[in-house]
Automatic annotation (TrEMBL):
<dbReference type="InterPro" id="IPR008869">
    <property type="entry name" value="MlaC/ttg2D"/>
</dbReference>
<dbReference type="InterPro" id="IPR042245">
    <property type="entry name" value="Tgt2/MlaC_sf"/>
</dbReference>
<protein>
    <submittedName>
        <fullName>Phospholipid transport system substrate-binding protein</fullName>
    </submittedName>
</protein>
<feature type="signal peptide">
    <location>
        <begin position="1"/>
        <end position="22"/>
    </location>
</feature>
<dbReference type="Pfam" id="PF05494">
    <property type="entry name" value="MlaC"/>
</dbReference>
<keyword id="KW-0732">Signal</keyword>
Length: 205
């Protein structure tokens, strides 16, 4: 359970203007495609992938590449410190975050029951740019996860994952706070904070 909570974490964005129902159907369709890919390319092939972590990571990356902007994800995690970071530090931070989360997320997906993943109908939406799509995931161990995928339409008309809330835990906010704490603990030294971030994520993989 802890792996999927720490791994399903690719995420983050703030709310903006309202959207119409004719637009939000595309958000749910995108989530359905991602969930179906999880089911067929990952969970259904767990016997092979559990023994081949490199192939597992590659498949997860292939699924998420078109719906997750990892550079933007990392920028939002760094928050107000992003402007202070050098281009090299930004690239390294994004790379460490992506690589570690892909490993963790892939391992987490192997714990799901492929026959009990349900994308729920769209419910009432807020007045922001994001559209919430709820998915119930049944674990093979018997536990249940409710994951809210917050999707935002890009300028190119592509729905991208902007935040994830798992069992009412907002991981966008959680990760920003965690990196802020690391900055404080390392006397606002970005280089040291990035190293601490790498160690922290490595412990969850």
């Amino acid at each position: 359970m802890s792996k999927i909570l720490s791994g399903v974490v690719f995420v983050f964005s703030l709310l903006g203007s309202s959207v119409t129902w004719s637009d939000v159907d595309g958000a749910r369709d995108t989530v359905i495609k991602v969930v179906d890919a999880f089911r067929t390319d990952i969970v259904a092939d767990k016997a092979v992938l559990s023994k081949d972590p490199v192939l597992l990571e590659k498949r997860v990356d292939n699924i998420l590449a078109n719906v997750v902007d990892f550079d933007d994800f990392s920028k939002k995690v760094m928050g107000k410190y992003y402007r202070r970071a050098s281009p090299e530090q930004r690239i390294r931070f994004a790379s460490v975050t992506k690589d570690t989360l892909l490993k963790t997320y892939g391992t987490s997906l192997l714990e799901l029951d492929a026959d009990r993943i349900n994308v729920l109908p769209l419910g009432p939406q807020g007045r922001g740019k994001e559209t919430k799509v709820d998915v119930d995931f049944q674990m093979e161990s018997g536990g249940m996860l409710n994951i809210s995928f917050f999707m935002e339409e890009s300028k190119k008309g592509v729905w991208m994952l902007s935040n994830v809330v798992i069992n009412n835990i907002n991981f966008g906010l959680t990760f920003r706070k965690q990196f802020g704490v690391m900055m404080e603990q390392n006397k606002n030294d970005i280089e040291l904070a990035i190293s601490a971030w790498r160690e922290s994520l490595a412990k969850k993989s």
